[in-house]
Amino acid sequence: MNNKINLLIAVILFISASQIRGQEWIAPADKASVSNPSEYNLANVKKGKEIYQKNCKSCHGDAGKYNALPLVPVPPDVASEIMHSNTEGGLFHKITAGKGGMPQFETTLSEDDRWRLVNYIMNYNPNVEPVLVEAPPVKAKIMASVNEVNKQVEVFAEFDNNGTFEKLADAEVIVSAKKTFGNLVIGKALTDENGRALFTIPESHIGDEEGYVKLVVALGEGYEVAALDLKSAKVGKLKEIPKLIKGGEILWSTNENIQPWLLFSYLGAVGGAWLAIGYIIFLIFRIRKYSKL
Amino acid sequence: MKRIESADESRKLLDKITFDLTRSIVKKDELTYFWFFILIMFVGVGLWGWGIQINDGLGVTGMRDYVSWGMYIANFVFFVAISLIGFLLSSALHLLKIHWAKPISRVAEQVAIAGVALAGLIIVMDMGRPERLLNVFLHGRFASPIIWDVTVVTTYLTISVLLFYIPLIPDLALLRDRLGDEVPKWKITLYTILALGWKGNPMQYKTVYHAMRVLMLLIIPVGLSIHTVTSWLFAATLRSGWDTTILGPYFVAGAFVAGSAAVIMLMYAYRVRYGLKDYFEDIHFDYMGKLLVFVCLVYLYFNVNEFLVPGYKMKSAEGVHLKNLFAGSFSVMFWVVQVFGLILPLVLLLIKYFRKPLPITIISFFVLISSWFKRYLIVVPTMEHPFLPVQNVPENFHTYVPTSIEIMITLFSFFAALTIISVLAKLFPVITIWEYAEDKGIDKKYLSEKPRN
Predict the structure, then answer these.
(1) Model confidence band, residue B327 (pLDDT cutoffs 50, 70, 90)
(2) CB contact (8 A) between residue A72 and residue B392
(3) Does domain A138-234 have CATH number 2.60.40?
(4) Do residues B367 and B292 make contact, with C-beta atoms less than 8 angstroms apart?
(5) pTM, to two decimals
(6) What is the pLDDT of residue B211?
(7) Average pLDDT for residues A54-77, to the nearest whole number?
(8) Most A-contacting residue of B156, B212, B213, B218 (CB-CB within 10 A), to test interface
(9) Right CATH number for B7-387+396-442 from 1.10.357.10, 1.20.810.10, 1.20.1630.10, 3.30.1490.20?
(10) What are the boundaries of each domain within chain A?
(11) Which CATH class is domain A24-122?
């Protein structure tokens, strides 16, 4: 018994120790001292941001907004103190190797890209001059129409220039399809000098059974404008209705596809029992009738 | 069976039997009021707890994502189990012409009715949205083993009520004719309605015998299936400890153990409370003790199969489950249940002394409590060990601890069952008078005579 308790205490200590170690993840000294071969400039930071949005944001959240997923341990924010207690080499090592909930990116991101990520993180280091400064969003508005024949979306964008709306050139327009669990980005286009962007829906895009797609048009980052929900338009491929592999054998748990032996045994047994009960009720009436004899 | 020829002697004996067996109906003292006060108080507290649960949702229980079946389901299985004794004592033994069990059959039927009625109610109490109960019938899926449970519980309740009622019809006429000012008027009205204008003519007796026989035959498959399909709730699930083909007979055998214990306790209560020493005789307790030994042996055999077969294989998840029962966090409960609920009663009841009324009642008490915890052990440990590891959930999702609301509602079920039994005992004789009188050799014609004052 005593042995068991000792074992239990040892296990608890081990688990809590590993928890603490998990929180203080320190990169080995030889890795931490590696210097960044990639230049810290706007191009690299921008590229790093792009990589971050694709690979890291889903857990770590937006930089400086502290909106990471509530995991254990919590993924630190890019602008946080924990993040910047690492050296550049340390960050690179952690991105490369991963640990626990943090996956490794050695096999999914190139070395250059990983260093660019480090550059992006360094943009938020309090001791480093930021090169990528996010300007406050500009108020904008968008108008869009769909041409079902050409399968094209025409977008006009304007921005608020101190009270008057002017044509918005060189702005990124994002066209997505509204799906059950969120918007699926179909593609992007840039507005021309007239604030006009023309986007062709690719042939391969699948709509519903009749080809309808609910399009959503939005502007890229830096603009304050609500996404525009367009009416369903017939611009997609027809969705194929999947054929059942073997008729009744899948989805057996619905009443339409129930196995016949289950149905017969159930209805037979229950029906038989209630028939007999009905007979007894009949006998009760008979007893009543006989009392008049 | 000897027949009593003399009319005077017959009438005298019938008067005595009627007097003794209606004592439970007529007797009214402070203890009765106190007993009903206790019952109603606990039932009220339990209903209050249910009110809280309906208002706040199932979050007030200890059940979470992983352990989604807790004390309620264990309690449900327990009540289904004790209700099964009705079919063993009042039907199977009757059909086998085992005579000594006759006076006990009413007691067994009382336990059956109370047990199965509460089992149905507990399932409703385990529902998060009980007002949607009707959907179970409207949108039930035939491919789910749970639909069996819903129908079989209602069917068994119906048959048990009929099997309680039909042999009672001649008695109800007797009570209607013989009880006067001793009982309130509404009781007489009730007997008059339920007696169906019974005259006691041969055709009526024939119909009663026929109906009883049909019911006794019917209740055997239904009784067996009620606990078998309860076991399917578990056995049709791919989980360690449940995924075994022996679970049906295992549950039935366990049910007989629990039910016999419940009946013995109730017999003793009636014997002491209503002075029925000459009706629930020592010999009945002795035979019930032997019956309990027999069903315990069957249950032990199934236990050996249930634990030893997977114990040899120790498949990964099954191994975790078994280790948890034998030496892990549930080991104390497991061994107490096995020793006090099965091994010890089995050994003790082999000795004649322990089959005397009081000792066997005490043993039955332990058996009954153990069998409740046994159901808890069937439900909860398996739920705590799913095949995939439990992770990324709050700490209180890992293990199950019943909350006070759950305990309140579980206590409610016990007291509600006792209330049903008490009301039945206050309304109807605990042994059918006419059958008992007939056994003692009194001719049927004296039964329908109006009493001479």
Answers:
(1) very high
(2) yes
(3) yes
(4) yes
(5) 0.69
(6) 94
(7) 88
(8) B218
(9) 1.20.1630.10
(10) 24-122, 138-234
(11) mainly alpha
Sign of the CA dihedral with B47 first, then B48, B53, and B54 last? positive
Distance CA A178, CA A227 (A): 11
Q: How distant, in Å, are the alpha carbons of B22, B269, B426 from that of B37?
A: 22, 18, 15
Query: Which pLDDT score, from 0 to 100, does residue A118 have?
Result: 92
Residue type at A12? I
Q: Distance from A153 to chain B by nearest Cα, in Å?
A: 44
pLDDT band at B270 (very low <50, low <70, confident <90, very high): very high
How are strands ordered across the β-sheet holding A172-179?
Answer: A182-190, A172-179, A212-219, A228-234
Amino acid identity of A264? F
When CB atoms are compared, the residue of A72, A259, A288 closest to B196 is A288
Given pLDDT bands bounded at 50, 70 and 90, which one contains residue A22?
very low
**Lowest-confidence pick of A22-31, A68-77, B104-113, B332-341:** A22-31
Task: Give the whole-angstrom CA distance, residue A237 versus residue B204.
Answer: 77
CB < 8 Å & 24+ apart, contacts of B281-287:
B282/B356, B282/B357, B283/B100, B284/B100, B284/B103, B284/B104, B285/B355, B285/B356, B285/B357, B285/B360, B286/B352, B286/B355, B286/B356, B287/B100, B287/B101
Please report the pLDDT score of residue B424 as a whole number.
Answer: 93
What average pLDDT does the segment A235-240 reach? Answer: 87
Contact between residue A197 and residue A157 where contact means Cβ atoms under 8 Å apart = yes
Distance separating alpha carbons of residues B349 and B362, to the nearest angstrom: 11
Contact residues for B108 (Cβ-Cβ < 8 A; gap 6+):
B85, B86, B88, B89, B90, B259, B263
Measured in angstroms, the CA of A43 and the nearest CA of chain B are apart by 39
Using the predicted structure, report yes or no on whether residue B452 has a pLDDT greater than 70.
no
CB A139 within 8 A of CB A171: no
Q: Which residue would you say has higher pLDDT here, B3 or B276? A: B276
Distance between CA atoms of residues A57 and B259, nearest Å: 61
For residue A284, the chain B residues in CB contact (below 8 A) are: 166, 196, 211
- The label of the residue with tokens 């049910």 reads B255
Instruction: Give residue-wise pLDDT tens across range B16-27.
Output: 888 888 888 888
How many angstroms separate the CA atoms of B191 and B174, rounded? 9
Pick from A166, A157, A164: which is nearest to A192 by CA?
A157
In contact, A120 and A49? CB cutoff 8 Å: yes
| Mean pLDDT (whole number) for B32-61 | 93
Contact residues, chain B, for A291 at CB < 8 Å: 196-199, 201, 204
User: Cis omega before residue A73 (within 30°)?
Assistant: yes
- pLDDT averaged over chain A? 85
A250, pLDDT greater than 90: no
Residues sharing a CB contact under 8 Å with residue B367, sequence separation 6 or more, in sequence order: B257, B258, B260, B261, B292, B340, B341, B342, B345
Shortest CA gap A283–chain B (Å): 7
Q: Tell whether the model's pLDDT for residue A15 goes beyond 70.
A: no
> pLDDT tens, B386-426?
888 777 788 888 889 999 999 999 999 999 999 999 999 99
User: By a Cβ cutoff of 8 Å, what residues of chain B touch chain A?
Assistant: 141-144, 147-148, 151-152, 155, 158-159, 162, 166, 169, 196-199, 201, 203-204, 207-208, 210-211, 214-215, 218, 221-222, 225, 392
- Which residues of A sit within 8 Å Cβ distance of B? 71-72, 252-255, 257-259, 262-263, 266-267, 269-270, 273-274, 276-277, 279-280, 283-284, 286-288, 290-293
Instruction: Pick the closest to residue A91 from A16, A38, A19, A50 (CA basis).
Output: A38
Residue contact B143–A253, C-beta within 8 A: yes
Per-residue pLDDT, A252:
55
